[in-house]
């Protein structure tokens, strides 16, 4: 008989177990996080593209308003007839001026953005000069304007006008006789600050956005301007290569991401283009922080598992007496185990290849190792808890709790990443039906909490019904979860119309949110209350915000501690159907107790 110390064998087994645990967790984490991060980055770029589309629509609306006002001034029949009489020699220039000036003064007063108005005859004689004198420069002289007017192929022409002062817009409108002949020109100078204020939203500086606008000039070229608060500042050149104006493009520089494309042109006014530049560290900042927190939590769980493994194996450290035959049997067993491990390693390699090919499915499978770790740790707790010291028992409890919370965080993050990817067909949907479906899903919770839910008139809009059910379910569940302590929750769901959109509100009488926490309400993994108040992952409001943004709306929060919270979101008015009256109040009911 021979006796062999097995300290070296124990150390090697322990080291191998730790490395296997860490390596498996890292491989699965990398295979799941990389495609998930790529998908969320694509969503951030799509949001930038969506912002470009919204601003383009605002510019088109602004241009149309200027064109319409120019045509209204030029088409006034009485003063146009006076200009025609002068053109045909039936009145003098002095008579024409006396008749025209007071009537054009009314047109100048009709719009606050109209700074100056100049009327010329077809021969270049000045009929009237009205408005802000500094804006009327030598550039508006007949010698400069007549060549442009004679070369015009459209009724009106809009171009930039800038010199030493701020940039303005110059509209040149041809005045036509009934026969179609040109009998004069109207020059209207418009203030550009309303357009700059429209493009420079309150969140432009917070999001790190810079906006640039290219406007066609009368010489056939383009002039670039930067939106600087409430002014359009002329630029000698862009801080990056000028993009093509033919199609919408998106490009990433070292520090910025660009969304560039033409403002959908009118048939008689082409060449406008807009570029939105976003700082990358702000555009992807929240995404990077959220994924970093998830990765750190995964590493922490793996480290805790390694520490527990060391604590469990340490009491077994010692000397054993092993017979030669027993040693040979164990060596054979180890060889068989090695073969099995190689097979498992091969299967794991094949699984990782599948995960790389199916990136979206990979992030879902990330939950399986967590369930396995949580299951074995829970098994260790139930079997060996009595053998461990107090701190070991606490470590086990921490590990189980951490694994459970990690599973919830990844599940919510997966649901968050699916928004906008697994799209259903949008169709006209009565929001009252979406609310009722959400209440059906929460019927047991509503009944247990005795929550009083009142649904007022809600509209019919074009949305994805399943996503809207998710929004209402999250908001109703939050209102119940953070309801008042000494009485049932009272929830009111209502809607009203404002301009071109619907505003839907969900109000409650709960414990409210502290002002310092309200600015973080719609961020990923932002808990607004402690775990002692209610459990959660901080994804509910972030999910609602992403769904509403996906539908082209906005969401905001108003809350007063110990009084209540109101979540309001907007949806585009994309259907002509009126809101359907709710058949009765308190339409949401949980199952009635017998």
Automatic annotation (TrEMBL):
The keyword Transcription does not apply. GO terms for molecular function: phosphorelay sensor kinase activity. It comes from the Bacteria. Its EC number is 2.7.13.3. Pfam families: HATPase_c, HisKA. Residues 324-354 form a coiled coil. The chain crosses the membrane at residues 294-313. Residues 361-575 form the Histidine kinase domain. Keywords: Coiled coil, Kinase, Membrane, Phosphoprotein, Transferase, Transmembrane, Transmembrane helix. It catalyses: ATP + protein L-histidine = ADP + protein N-phospho-L-histidine. Residues 571-594 are annotated as: Disordered. InterPro entries: HATPase_C_sf, HATPase_dom, His_kinase_dom, HisK_dim/P_dom, HisK_dim/P_sf, Sensor_kinase/Photoreceptor, Sig_transdc_His_kin-like_C, TAT_signal. This is histidine kinase. It comes from Insolitispirillum peregrinum.
């Amino acid at each position: 008989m021979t006796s062999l110390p097995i300290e070296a064998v124990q150390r090697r087994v322990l080291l191998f177990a730790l490395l296997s645990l860490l390596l498996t967790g890292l491989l699965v984490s990398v295979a799941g996080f990389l495609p998930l991060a790529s998908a969320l980055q694509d969503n951030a770029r799509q949001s930038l593209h969506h912002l470009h589309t919204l601003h383009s629509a605002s510019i088109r609306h602004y241009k149309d308003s200027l064109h319409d006002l120019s045509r209204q001034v030029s088409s006034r029949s009485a003063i146009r007839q006076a200009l025609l009489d002068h053109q045909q020699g039936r009145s003098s220039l002095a008579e024409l001026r006396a008749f025209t000036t007071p009537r054009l003064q009314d047109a100048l007063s009709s719009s606050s953005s109209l700074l100056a108005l100049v009327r010329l005859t077809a021969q270049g004689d000045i009929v009237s000069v009205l408005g802000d004198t500094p804006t009327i420069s030598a550039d508006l002289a007949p010698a400069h304007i007549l060549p442009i007017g004679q070369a015009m192929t459209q009724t009106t022409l809009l171009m930039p006008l800038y010199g030493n002062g701020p940039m303005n817009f110059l509209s040149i409108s041809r005045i036509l006789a009934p026969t179609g002949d040109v009998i004069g020109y109207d020059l209207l100078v418009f203030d550009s600050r309303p357009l700059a204020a429209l493009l420079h939203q309150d969140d432009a500086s917070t999001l790190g956005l810079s906006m640039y606008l290219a406007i066609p000039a009368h010489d056939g070229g383009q002039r670039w301007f930067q939106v600087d608060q409430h002014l359009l500042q002329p630029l000698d050149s862009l801080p990056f290569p000028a993009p093509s104006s033919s199609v919408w493009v998106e490009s990433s520089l070292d520090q910025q991401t660009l969304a560039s494309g033409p403002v959908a042109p009118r048939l008689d006014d082409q060449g406008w283009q807009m570029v939105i530049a976003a700082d990358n560290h702000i555009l992807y900042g929240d995404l990077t922080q959220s994924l970093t927190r998830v990765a750190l939590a995964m590493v922490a769980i793996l480290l805790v598992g390694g520490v527990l493994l060391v604590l469990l194996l340490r009491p077994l450290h010692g000397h054993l007496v092993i017979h030669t035959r027993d040693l040979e049997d164990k060596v054979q067993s180890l060889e068989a185990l090695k073969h099995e491990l190689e097979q498992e390693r091969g299967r794991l390699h094949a699984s990782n290849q599948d995960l790389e090919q199916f990136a979206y499915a990979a992030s879902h499978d990330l939950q399986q190792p967590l369930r396995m770790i949580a299951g074995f740790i829970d098994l260790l707790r139930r079997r060996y808890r009595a053998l461990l010291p107090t701190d070991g028992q606490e470590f086990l409890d921490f590990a189980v709790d951490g694994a459970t919370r990690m599973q919830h965080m990844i599940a919510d993050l997966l649901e968050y990443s699916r928004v906008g990817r697994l799209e259903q067909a949008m169709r006209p949907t009565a929001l009252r039906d979406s609310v009722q479906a959400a209440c059906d899903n929460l019927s047991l919770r509503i009944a247990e909490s005795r929550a009083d839910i009142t649904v007022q008139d809600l509209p019919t809009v074009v949305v994805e019904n399943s996503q809207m059910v998710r929004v209402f379910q999250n908001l109703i569940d939050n209102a119940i979860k953070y309801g008042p302590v000494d009485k049932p929750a009272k929830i009111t769901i209502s809607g009203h119309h404002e301009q071109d959109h619907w505003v839907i509100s969900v109000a409650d009488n709960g414990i409210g949110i502290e002002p310092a926490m309200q600015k973080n309400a719609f961020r990923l993994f932002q808990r607004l209350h402690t775990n002692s108040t209610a459990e959660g992952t901080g994804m509910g409001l972030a999910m609602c915000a992403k769904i509403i943004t996906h539908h082209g709306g906005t969401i905001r929060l108003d809350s007063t501690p110990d009084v209540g919270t109101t979540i309001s979101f907007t949806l585009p008015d994309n259907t002509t159907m009126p809101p359907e009256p709710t058949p009765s109040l308190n339409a949401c009911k949980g199952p009635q107790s017998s």
